[in-house]
Amino acid sequence: EAQALEAAFEARIAAGEFIEAKDWMPEHYRRTLVRQISQHAHSEIVGMLPEGHWISRAPSLKRKAILLAKVQDEGGHGLYLYAAAETLGVSRDELLEALHAGRAKYSSIFNYPTLTWADVGVIGWLVDGAAIMNQVPLCRCSYGPYARAMIRVCKEESFHQRQGFESLLTMMQQGTAAQRAMVQDAVDRWWWPSLMMFGPPDAASTHSAQSMRWGIKRESNDALRQRFVDACVEQARVLGVGLPDPDLRWNEARGAHDFGAIDWDEFWAVVNGHGPCNRERLATRVSAWERGAWVREAALAHERKRAARRAA
Ligand code: 3HC
């Protein structure tokens, strides 16, 4: 019986069908999706913090309004993805408890500091640009609720990436020399951590093979990283910024850019909690959770009263 179910499931995956929440699925497939979708949701919520820091410091009302809209979008993406994770039978509270206890991962990139206003533009250009590279294939993920969530998220991510690029173009073309130097400094600091967002090299990836067999991961970590590098080289040229990699050069034979070695020791240190801002990000999340408890209690009390009135 179990083998027949497994075989039918594999056939559906092979046929490119969407698996829905009520469909039979292997427990390992479900657990893999809970892991990835919850980490993705945590990344969106923690991702609000580096930029949120600059909402009250934005240089104009226009930039403040744009940044406010972007950070609100990230919050919405997080809630959307927690809802997708809940379709797999986990509760939002247990996912958040794991995050606040430091037991859940979120994207390494959000553990770096945002030191200047140019960081906000570079995050839009590089971090949201990398997120789009990684999230577009997820629109074809075999798990229906996740794939559908990604379609809306990707539409909003393209606004995030374009506003960042436009902000940098303004600084580079109309800014002072000091502002242009500020942009170059931010690019130098965010370039390598953005490449790390795609995950470890395929040869060191624990989940890629199985996730690709299940149609969860449609493109490998290295393939998406390479596509991102190739896209950024031309964008950097338009911006007039340099990329901090002396080994970056076009390889005609490969039809792609060769680039330098990534510091995987740094990556794993950040993933394992020892990045520049890991403690600060988690403390901020825990404090927000605790300070917001009264809102959740009030909403639940209100709902209990409404339910009692309906029952009366
Ligand atoms: N940060 C933290 N942990 C990472 C990581 C990263 N950048 N890349 C990989 N890892 C972890 C994996 O979670 C896994 O650890 P685990 O077994 O404890 O979960 C381990 O490193 C091995 O990596 P694998 O390649 O085997 O793991 P995956 O198959 O899960 O691939 C991934 C990693 C490509 C990030 C994949 O999980 C994925 O596509 N996730 C969903 C998309 C996502 O999270 N995107 C980035 C954040 S969203 C964002 O940027 C918001 C935007 O609005 C700015």
Automatic annotation (TrEMBL):
Superkingdom, taxonomy of origin: Bacteria
GO biological process: phenylacetate catabolic process
Pfam families: PaaA_PaaC
InterPro entries, per database record: Aromatic_CoA_ox/epox (IPR052703), Ferritin-like (IPR012347), Ferritin-like_SF (IPR009078), PaaA (IPR011881), PaaA_PaaC (IPR007814)
Record-level GO cellular component terms: cytosol
GO molecular function terms listed in the Swiss-Prot or TrEMBL record: phenylacetyl-CoA 1,2-epoxidase activity
NCBIfam families named among the record's database cross-references: PA_CoA_Oxy1 (TIGR02156)
Protein name listed in UniProt: Phenylacetate-CoA oxygenase, PaaG subunit
Organism: Piscinibacter sakaiensis (Ideonella sakaiensis)
The organism's taxonomic lineage, starting at the top: Bacteria, Pseudomonadati, Pseudomonadota, Betaproteobacteria, Burkholderiales
